[in-house]
Design goal:
InterPro entries: Metalloenz_LuxS/M16, Pept_M16_N, Pept_M16_Zn_BS, Peptidase_M16, Peptidase_M16_C. Keywords: Hydrolase, Metal-binding, Metalloprotease, Protease, Zinc. One of its GO terms (molecular function) is metal ion binding. It is an enzyme of class 3 (hydrolase). A hairpin with a 5-residue loop joins strand 1 and strand 2. Helix 1 packs across helix 13. The chain folds into two domains: 207 residues, Metalloenzyme, LuxS/M16 peptidase-like (Cytochrome Bc1 Complex, Chain A, domain 1, 2-Layer Sandwich), CATH 3.30.830; 188 residues, Metalloenzyme, LuxS/M16 peptidase-like (Cytochrome Bc1 Complex, Chain A, domain 1, 2-Layer Sandwich), CATH 3.30.830.10. The protein is an alpha+beta fold. The protein is 43% helix and 18% strand. The longest helix is centred in the first third of the chain and has 20 residues. 44% of the residues are buried. A six-stranded mixed β-sheet has the order 1-2-6-3-5-4, with helices on both faces. A five-stranded mixed β-sheet has the order 7-11-8-10-9, with helices on both faces. The chain has 16 helices and eleven strands.
């Protein structure tokens, strides 16, 4: 009854706030502007998204998009090192940045009357960044330490990195976002200057503004600050389609850890690449059926029922720029092995292939998706992030509003079809963490600016 009430409430409220008008503008220099009013509080979120991330990089400079994100706070022609952050703080705002495989984004949250400050600062560093040799040397050390703390000293992160590198042979998703350590240690200033010049331009950027604003006034501000910036001759992005996998790939990684860990990844299409438009949504539903709370199959069957796993998760990334992987990860329960968990997961997947999921399971997942879509609207930041991410990976931002409908349209037969089609050995990569004795050393403290990924 509680879930039914939540679903009814969600269906009623989504048309009210989910489909709020988004105004789209295009400046003459190619910059795209998306503005979504949300007048519930006198605040505004401003985000600048660039179509560049680790999937645009090549061997030898992996991670360069991430370190450039760090350097964007280190000074421009008219701003000193870290002055950007100081100005935002002095105006009562917060700011940060993040780098992904398909994008790099910068954002500020401010009182609504201070949006102009954000635009002025972002326009300044869009074309007038200074790459200082000494600052780069310091930031290389920061990023190297970040990599050690978040990946090299984290066995599960290390396993995920190794699995991606094995699963993707020629797709740029082979590269870790933070970069390989050898590449980090050998960036030179000219590498970053070339990368900045190549990708940081108005015709490769989308500005997203959500908050208590008037769209036309925001457009006039964008014209004032971003309009005079010159566009750039952007590099041609070559298609890098992953070669077909023709057999099971396995790896074992030995690292200091207390428990073994299993990761399994199957090649799947995403919304940008799918021939059958519904397939990525059916895979999302399948992820929810397997791992969508206490009543999901993994929790019910493998954790509480068979007690073969201490924890099992399933995740599908439907909104990437390139084909991705559907990932299942698990920790064996005490007294159980990686092989025990692996066979239990295979048995659950075989069941999905041979028996349609129940109507109750479908409705549970659909209820969760609709409710989640509504709750996310409480955050102006997340509203902006959805718009920017979709636009930057090459999709229509209007998919923000259509996602619940796409999920609601998925049938049990479609879930069964994607399981049969994609959960096959020829598309599978299995990675196992083999614990080795630790030296009980205390982890080293990290360092770096708050915008560090």
């Amino acid at each position: 009854m509680h879930n039914l009430k939540k679903l009814v409430w969600a269906l009623l409220i989504v048309p009210v706030i989910g489909f709020a008008q988004v105004s789209e503008y295009q400046l003459e220099n190619g910059l795209k502007l998306l503005v979504k009013p949300d007048n519930r509080a006198p605040v505004v979120v401003s985000q600048v998204w660039y179509k560049v991330g680790s999937s645009y990089e090549h061997n030898g400079i992996t991670g360069i998009s991430h370190i450039l994100e760090h350097m964007m706070f280190k000074g421009t022609e008219n701003l000193g090192p870290n002055e950007f952050s100081q100005i935002i703080a002095e105006n009562g705002g917060s700011q940060n940045a993040f780098t992904g495989r398909d994008y790099t984004a910068y954002f500020q949250t401010l009182e609504k009357e201070r949006l102009e400050i954000s635009f002025r600062l972002e326009a300044e560093r869009m074309r007038k960044l200074i790459i200082d040799d000494a600052e780069l040397l310091k930031e290389r050390e920061v990023v190297a330490e970040e990599r050690r703390m978040r990946t090299d000293d984290n066995p599960r992160s290390l396993l995920r990195e190794a699995m991606n590198a094995m699963a993707f042979m020629n797709s740029p998703y082979h590269h870790p976002v933070i970069g390989w350590m050898n590449d980090i240690n050998h960036y030179d200033p000219e590498d970053l200057r070339e990368w900045y010049q190549m990708w940081y331009a108005p015709n490769n950027a989308t500005v997203v503004v959500v908050g208590d604003v008037d769209p036309d006034e925001v457009y006039q501000l964008a014209q004032k600050y971003f309009g005079p910036l010159a566009p750039e001759q952007l590099a041609t992005v070559k298609p890098q389609v992953e070669v077909p996998q023709r057999g099971l790939r396995t790896l074992q990684l030995k690292a200091p850890a207390e428990l073994p860990y299993l990761m399994m990844g199957w090649k799947v299409p995403v919304v940008t690449t799918a021939v059958e438009e519904w397939e990525p949504y059916a895979l999302d539903v399948l992820a929810g059926i397997l791992d969508g709370g206490a009543s999901s199959r993994f929790s019910r069957e493998l954790v509480r029922g068979q007690q073969v796993a201490a924890g099992v998760s399933a995740y599908n990334s439907a909104f990437s720029r390139l084909d991705d992987i559907f990932t299942i990860a698990a920790t064996p329960a005490q007294g159980k092995t990686i092989e025990d968990v692996k066979q239990a997961v295979f048995a659950q997947l075989d069941k999905v292939k041979t028996e349609p999921v129940t109507e109750a399971e479908l409705q549970r997942v659909k209820t969760q998706v609709i409710a989640s879509s509504v709750y996310q609207l409480d955050s102006v930041f997340y509203q902006a992030m959805q718009l920017g991410m979709l636009e930057t990976v090459g999709l229509d931002w209007r998919l923000v509003d259509s996602y619940p409908d796409k999920i609601s349209a998925i049938t049990a037969e479609q879930v069964q079809q994607v399981a049969e089609k994609y959960f096959i050995e020829d598309g599978l990569t299995i990675a196992e963490l083999i614990p080795v004795a630790t030296d009980n050393a205390s982890p080293r403290p990290t360092s770096g600016d708050p915008h560090a990924r």
